[in-house]
Amino acid sequence: GASLNALLTAYEVTGNLRLLELASSVAGRLKSFMVADGFRDELRGTPTLSKLDSPNESPNSICLRGVLRLCAILDDARWLEAVGGLLPNLMGGLSKYKEVFVAGLYSNLDRFMNGAVHVVVVDAGDGRADMLHRAGLMAYHPFKVVERVALEVLSEHPNPAVRGLPRSGQSRAYVRKGWRSSFAESTDRPEGVLKHLETMLHESYNYS
Predict the structure, then answer these.
(1) What pTM was estimated for this model as a whole?
(2) CB 200 within 8 A of CB 177
(3) How many C-beta atoms lie closer than 10 Å to residue 206's C-beta?
(4) Given the DSSP bridges, would you call strands 185-187 and 117-123 parallel, antiparallel or unpaired?
């Protein structure tokens, strides 16, 4: 799980599609460790990894967070279905623990229910993508994924929704909210990216 999250973070920062391919490969391996109520602990030979944060985020939560991040980037319906089937058993019995010990899994439940904010910066090579990308990375949202895709490799992206983004001569950021949704918002200004994410934060959580 930690390897998957590390690869996804590196991909978000660099935009190197090879890292996304590696993350997908790791996730495929991780899927073979999935059992009815979590992810199997191969190293220790126990039925499942720990569910409790003590004090660091639990291994089950780390695995789940990585899978949900990948789902947000790829629109992977099969993974979403697998997570939806896993959650009832994974979350079962957690109410008996203090919130501080199960915050990781409850955060992932929230991510699954509300979906991700997905920012894609299409880099047209005009020098504007740096600021748009930086704004996407810096803006706050509890569940956000950010991509920077060069215009010349846009057609190689594994997600059809990203491949279908407009091919203009100007760098632009496209934003969507929710699972497998369309990119309803776009901007060519860094402050526009920040505004879109702020609006989506208020819509999802009524933050003031």
Answers:
(1) 0.86
(2) yes
(3) 7
(4) unpaired
